Amino acid sequence: MPKQENGQKGDSVIQNDLSESFEEEVRAFLSDEEKLHLFDDLTKVNPVTTTTVLRCLQARYRVNLFYTNAGCSLVALNPFQPFSCLYSPELMREYHVALRPQDLKPHIFAVAEQTYRNVQNQMDPVNQSIIVSGESGAGKTWTSRCLMKFYASVAASVISPKGNETVERIERRVLDSNPVMEAFGNACTLRNNNSSRFGKYIQLQLDRFHHLSSASIQTFLLEKTRVAYQAPNERNFHIFYQITKGATAEERLEWNLPEGAEYRWLPNPERNLDEDSFEVTRAAMCHLGIERCTQSNVFKVLSGLLHLGNIQFSNPVDESQPCDLEDKTKGFVKTTGDLLKIPVEELLESLRIRTITAGKQQQVFKKPCSRAECETRRDCLAKVIYARLFEWLVLVINESIYADPSVWTSFIGLLDVYGFEAFPENNLEQLCINYANEKLQQHFVAHYLKAQQEEYAAEGLQWSFINYQDNQNCLDLLEGNPLSIFSLLNEECRLNRPSNPALFQARIEKALSSNQCLSGDRFSKKPNFIISHYAGKVCYQLAAMVEKNKDAVPPELVHVLQNSKDSLLQKLFPVTENNQNNIKTQNRAPVVTVVSKFKSSLEHLMQILNRTTPHYIRCIKPNADCKARTFKREEVLSQLQACGIVEAITISAAGFPVRIPFQRFTERYEILRKSCGPSKRRVCDKSNSHTAEEKAYLDSAASSTFCKLLFF
Ligand SMILES: Nc1ncnc2c1ncn2[C@@H]1O[C@H](COP(=O)(O)OP(=O)(O)OP(=O)(O)O)[C@@H](O)[C@H]1O
Questions:
Q1: Which domains does the chain have, with CATH numbers?
Q2: In Gene Ontology terms, what is a biological process of this protein (predicted)?
């Protein structure tokens, strides 16, 4: 039976009970805070509209209630100020030992405890996943960190038969992976001082005693362009600031980082952030088993990248000659070569000269690069080194927390991915990020909105389907067969000729115009296409998109890195049989595009998620300025809409009166009973004399009364 509308059946019986005097009574004996706790779960808001949900969240935020249940999701408002008591070990324990944690205040620990108990109870599917989503700065990383601390503390609170040593070691390492990955993968952006520039899925693996036995981390799409380009008022990855600010005098000499030196790729160094602490990163690296000498090697290579960024080229007088170096930057070529252990001449040649193979005999020609090409090569060198370094770091972390799969029996996965992005200019990065969000939305729709309604129908309830936005059309546009944006992009890469964005735009329009999710900005001079995502329209620029997708590294650069005498670079760029000194073969190697790599890693992730019981934490940023005590309605509203939370609440709320009418009813009136004296028990005591249907009605009517008291 669907939710009853007020004023329908049952009206005559109980209309009087819910008259003004009822409101008066409620007003008299419930404090504001008590009223707000009635909305610990947004499914109790009545009527469920975007406005009532928004008002409820705002009212709760005002009294520091940042977490609210919303059907299968937990809405987490970012307080933008520390509340240590909200994450204390005592509170973790309280949720862990509670008979019914779901009866405590909504909290990420309640979600965490629920997943843990599901594993213990062997509920099918036993493996659990928590999908933490939200836009940049909404609190995903903070939430994931707190969840990891919770699991670590839960695992430590029981004595393992083997003793607690292994558990503690793994727990320490899992926690230490955070500062290291944040140092190398996070940066200060306009939207968040500590923004993760990669996606992360961490699997906490439990043995049959439900102790943390091991873990694994998978990362997605590091924003490596940041190494060589930082938008105005943004910064490079934290680690660069950490080494330039925190190195000792001796290290400064070794890494060639004199105090006060300026680097083009190190903008805004005067901004001091908590995240600049070099000591924390080093200590965590030590705990992860990365020895001091290896660390020093890493930092030396990073210093090399800073010097590389200072190399600038100028046009040669004679065009047949390689580009000149600007006088003031000549010294940086030498220091870069020294730090990366690459002979200066080889380094310069790889940056300034292209090797071309042509003709039937595959003759090799050398051609000087233009100034722009030299700059692209310099940036590319930095990006490829940094990306491989990050991959290596993740590998090392994984090795230090790994256990053979025979050791663990179940897992809890935490997914912290970048939220939906729509900037004035969007390119391949946003296309991938928004594609990931479409996939996760599809997962949410399939696992919750659709599954829940199908369950109602299967139970034989009269159920009129509540419309939710199905994003299949958009996913077809992005990745469908045989033609999609991704397939066209990949094809364009395979053509092995410079891409023409205007022609490419025409191809996309011709091939995909039948999909309603595709349009274009005809007034813009820049070639583009617009996709109507579930969370809104985004206009993508086509200039450089194909090149970004190719992500080609000139073979001369790989070659020079493979010949480096630096032991870390040798590890990052091993000489394999296929590529040994063979620039010709590399020129013909098949292109593995960014999009195809990203798509396959995401598909792998979705397969894992599909086999788990999902839980969703929707992080919401109450204002764009990251200020405490500031709730901007329009900003919250657009985030609520972007994650389909109102539809989810509507579906849960509509199902509730039918599924557990008494529970909800009693719950509500229990509060009234507790709060009022004998003379005021009139309404509550009526509860025993009503039929289930009347109670359900009364229940929903009471919700509106509370809503009225709270909001109007
Ligand atoms: N529960 C919380 N209590 C107090 N402060 C918080 C909380 N959650 C987040 N913050 C603050 O908000 C900032 C941004 O949070 P966080 O880095 O977790 O966002 P994010 O969603 O991971 O962003 P991005 O996608 O850019 O990485 C944090 O640095 C912290 O200052």
A1: 312-381+553-594 (1.20.120.720), 428-550+597-605 (1.20.58.530)
A2: actin filament organization
